[in-house]
Queue: 3 jobs
Job 1
Amino acid sequence: MNIAEYLANIGEKKYRITQIEKALYKEFVHNFDEITTLPKDLREKLKQEFPFSSLKIKLEKASKNKQTEKVIFETKDDYQVESVLMRHLTGRITLCVSCQVGCPNKCLFCATGKLGLTRDLKTEEIIDQYLYFARKLKKEGKRINNIVFMGMGEPFLNYENVLHAVEILNNPHKIGLGFRHITISTCGIIPGIRKFMAEGIQVNLAISLHAPNDKLRTELMPINKAYPLIELMETLDKYIKKTSRRIFYEYIMLKGKNDSAKEAQELGKLLQGKLAHVNLIPYNPIDTDDPLQQSEEAEIRKFQKVLQKYGVPSTVRASLGDDIDAACGQLIAKK
């Protein structure tokens, strides 16, 4: 039973849920006692019936430059998930949230994939990641500008809970974050992409690509066996035709694996003439025994120049939070 159902069962007026949602999503209160628009006896009942958050804090870490903060949350059933807050030099603040405990996709370069999948996160567990950081930033007079579903898990394998979370994030009567400030990243789950394009919403779509051909992509990302590149790109062409939305392609730069001129040319040909933007991401080692290595900066720049020749725009991402195991691919790498 949720709070709205509980209030109806005890005969409370419908406007009480509006008061509660305003306190939670607009005022970012820390507990039920702070919802002073509610009668004291109702606050006491809510405290007895409902935990204020579905998550508790296990560990907080901040990078040396204070640009990145990572929190390990613990669920009611004692599983751990991580979220990362990134403070950009431009002043923007981005929150990277998780949507599953672990991940089933076993990408070679990702620590989370080594865990396997335990379970999906519920909508409230996704939203509570946001609310924790929103409360913290409120004390600084700041707010989260962007949400990216790029933490632990595959969003399109937890489709309903993720989309419900997006609705709450976007709803002007709740959190009120614009769709274009929300990004969902997928490793290429074609049925999920098809459902997503039918939603008719302006949420950004990011594709974890990481290789421009099937052989290499299957080596790095076993999910490519189920959804090979030709089918994925055909689906994305339909997505662009229907939505007219640019797609972001994530490409982790791995020394000697996917960073040569050959791969750059293949990627350029694959994306030439499409509504595409490539994010070139320096690899972040998972542990000291990791056989994968980060590409040299000079090689990344050469790779980028090849993409430019094909008219494919790209950005070399700055690595944030690698000193606290919070960078791309490192979540739950170490205890």
Job 2
Amino acid sequence: MSLLIKNGRIITSSDDYIADIYIENEKIKQIGMGLSVKADQTIDATGKLIFPGGIDPHVHLDMPFMGTFSSDNYETGTGAALFGGTTMVIDFILQTQGKSLYDALKEWKGRSDGNAVGDYSFHMAVTDFNENTKAEIKDLIEKEGITSFKTFMAYKGALMIDDRQMVGLMNEVKKQGGMVTTHATNGDMIDYLVAKHRGEGKLSPLYHYLSQPEITEAEASGRFSDMAFQTGVTAYIVHMTCEGAHNHVRDAARRNQKVYAETCIQYLVLDASLYDKGFESAKWVMSPPLREKKDQASLWAGINQGSVQVVATDHCPFKWEQKKLGENDFSKIPNGHPAIEHRMELLFSEGVHKGKISLNKFVEVSSTNTAKIFGMYPRKGCISPGSDADLVIFDPNKQHTLSAKTHHMNCDYSGYEGWKVTGKCETVILRGEVAIQNNKLLVKKGYGQFIKRNKTTGII
């Protein structure tokens, strides 16, 4: 099928111009003014912006956690992502301690294969690094196209690895041309504070926030950066929330070390005042928790300065009945937040529309940098001949209101209920197919492809 998009204002991480785009066989074939080609379908994008499809490198679909599963599976989660202009996600495979990395890959493929609507890839979370798992890393990178390996510095007994395992993993991943990412919070300090608050009978969601103060994230971010510096591995901190952690990333840059930093849309627009709402605050129980206004200012500054390269979501939704598992004890509330559908529109509305970031920066942190960092560029994350035809036709002036009544995520509440947004993903194209139009999903379950990624270059 061929598609011609006419008269759109094309925005990339570096360009801003008006042109036509001709698409054939899933790829962009031509870009130019007044293209005289015949196409099976033509879309007039006059007055609209055209972005590369968004890439969310931090989601948890159908994930087992705290005795339940996140409520979006690969079909509903990637479908909701498409409604919000995100054409590809990278999910996390979680190794079970005592089992192999390939066992975990098989388990996750059982959930994803044939079920995704949008494109996807995987990070491999290593929770038990030993000689056997070490031997699997080369094949995961070279044969499977899984080139990023996540570690947890918290969740002791289930996911957390110690510093010795971390250094061993970093050395092997560097040798094989991959990247190590981390959930950077000090698990022992957090566990101590959780036990202290529970022992004092302080059980409301507020104490989830108070059990993870800024220092727990800042300390772990600095320790991770130091271990990455010593081993020379390409390093990436996921869901960075605070000024203290951001300062460590800046310190790394001063010694000519590149530590990539990702924040999430909720940390840019929501703050810790939401933990003052009784049990309703469980809607925003996530790890790390929401922070303060000064932390938001630091993150927005980091985006503009280039020290924060990616805006993701850490999308891990749970329905209200699942959240109520912790009604009498904050430590039993499943951690997570529904956001996969709102990332692009919130980032445009709160960032571009309010003058915090430029259009080019918007594309950079929502798509292009992720494609470059995680080995998919220029197939993904750009608008150029030969690239996958993943495009968002965006109305920059359309106003709408976010609500659980209208969102497409499989979650019965919204963390953004009643939020007024300027800017709407009007038409979304995935590999040349119109996937979203007139607020309808037009591609079927199984259309989403697994995307093998290349070895990281450590350069953006």
Job 3
Amino acid sequence: MNTRALGNQGLRVSELGLGCMGMSWAYGAPGNEEESISVIHRATELGIDFFDTAEIYGPFTNEVLVGKALRDRRERVVIATKFGFDIGEDGMRRGLNSSPENVRRACDASLARLGVDQIDLFYQHRLDRSVPIEETVGAMAELVRDGKVRYLGLSEVGAETLRRAHAVHPITALQSEYSLWERGIEDEILPTLRELGIGMVPYCPLGRGFLTGQIKRPEDIPENDYRRTDPRFQGENFMKNLDVVRAVEEIAREKGTTPAGIALAWLLHQGDDIVPIPGTKHLRHLEENAASVTIALTADDLARLDMLGEPGAIAGERYGEMGMKAIDR
């Protein structure tokens, strides 16, 4: 697998990363620890060296899992984690908190859970509007100077916030949702990233699994899975969005590959500064996703796929009301 420069600060990672959230949280029951560790180990064998986690995943348990899985190969991997919530000792989330004090506390706690001396890429998970971004990034920059963090990132912030943050300390990467069914960053945010030399890390590049074609009915989603409340997976929205999946499946058949492979290949073709982090807790899906780096799409293929994400083609917001309020646009 090839590598890509993530931003212009010197960080290089595999062209595809691995999102580890679903191994511990959100998508139904947590995965089996042994299988999850096997997935992470297999990812490194396939050339994937970029692993994404966060304090909120679990909470806390995903960082422990990722640290355990990568302990014997630490020098060969890039570990990214995220902070930004006020989380009690009982694991209850009490809102956002990006105060300088919480930045330092969260970093030390993540270092301990991961079992590492330095975090490679430390993101603010969501913008805390009660704390000026300059103060938050200033505290993050102190962590770089202290050697606890190598590079800084933000997640789901808009162009103005990016500029203000980048003026305090170079931002290496922005993590935001970006896929064939969520292209809201293209008009303003992606050009700003390229102007400033910031890399793009798309999360949910498979539309929370919808673009894989494996979810045919709302009932296919486990009872304790947060997608049960996702607006795009509800009623008429679900049925309309199936049209997009069918179109991706058609192109996948023509190419002799999987719908997931096509969706990831489309993202990889959007620029060498883009590094998707599809998540999975299953070996088969990992290997299918990794194969996407070998899929060549023609100009005609790309044009057909581009049409799927045009305004009005996707039904429903990508989060519920509270989730959308947490996005800085």
